[in-house]
Amino acid sequence: MSTTKDAHAAPVRLSAGEKAAVTDQTARHIISSENALRVSKTSRLRQLRLEKEAMANPAPAVRAKKK
Question: Each residue of 38-67: b (16+ CB within 10 Å) or e?
Answer without folding.
Answer: eeeeeeeeeeeeeeeeeeeeeeeeeeeeee
